[in-house]
Amino acid sequence: MPSSRPLRADARRNREALLAAAREAFLAGDTDAHVEEIAQRAGVAVGTLYRHFDTREALVAAVYRQEVSELCAAPARLLAERPADVALRAFLLLLVQHSATSKGMGEALEGIMATDSPVFDTARDDMAEALDQLLAAGVEARLLRDDISGRIVLRALGGICGMRATGWEDDAKCIAELLCDGLRCTANGTT
């Protein structure tokens, strides 16, 4: 189990290399990649991998947490670049893309689903908070209605993103557009 003290520079580089190698393998669909193979791709010994991640599931969870962390950092950047309603639309499309990426990691993530890992609950909370940030900015700018939370938007989009049917991604993009239209205020600022 990794300690809570800051990592030395070489240890931080090794951890980042391991996460990058695992992420690349999982996203490429190589969900059966063994820890030895991931360590080799990262250019470190397998013992180094186990110093950072005590199990393969811990490595998968760390990759997923990194994906979610990067996703949830997007609202601040999006709001700095565009109006809140347009930023919300862009973020909803990023959520669809994240879901498609997570499906690529599907088999690897299934190992975590079988444990008591809070990784998915935490991810949903973080995504709902990111949506809340966008919605609040839209309400403040009188662009978006004020009676819907990020959790509700996430649930609405999550239903289609959870499907494995052919064409789900195009359908999810259409639903993201419908959500954006439904969240906009009328010209006088009412819902």
In short:
With 191 residues, the protein is an all-alpha fold. The chain has ten helices and no strands.
Distance between the termini: 50 Å
CATH class of the largest domain: Mainly Alpha
By CATH, the superfamily of the largest domain comes out as Tetracycline Repressor, domain 2
Order of helices and strands: HHHHHHHHHH
Q: Could you say which structural class the secondary elements and strand pairing correspond to?
A: mainly alpha
Count of individual helical segments: 10
Tell me the CATH topology of the largest domain: Tetracycline Repressor, domain 2
Q: Tell me the number of structural domains.
A: 2
List unreliable stretches of 5+ residues.
none
Average residue-wise pLDDT: 85
Sheet of most strands: none
Radius of gyration: 19 Å
Q: How much of the polypeptide forms β-strand, as a percent range?
A: under 5%
CATH architecture of the largest domain: Orthogonal Bundle
Q: Helix coverage percent of residues? A: over 70%
How many strand elements? 0
**Rough outline:** elongated
Task: Report what the structure shows.
The protein is an all-alpha fold. The protein has helices at 9-27, 35-42, 46-52, 56-72, 74-81, 84-104, 106-113, 119-140, 150-161, 168-183. It has two domains: 9-54, Arc Repressor Mutant, subunit A, CATH 1.10.10; 64-183, Tetracycline Repressor, domain 2 (Orthogonal Bundle). Helix 5 runs antiparallel to helix 6 and helix 5 (74-81) packs parallel to helix 8 (119-140).
